Amino acid sequence: MIGSTAGKLHKAEKEIKCGLESHGNTCAGIYRAPGDVRNIMKEIREYAPDLMITEDLEGFEMCTLTDAVSYNLIHCRQLHLLLSEDLTNERYLAKQLSLLMTFVCPDTDRAAALKDKYPDIPEITTVENIPDDIPAEITDCLAVALATATVTATAFVPDIRRHA
Question: Which domain holds residue 69?
Answer without folding.
Answer: 2-160
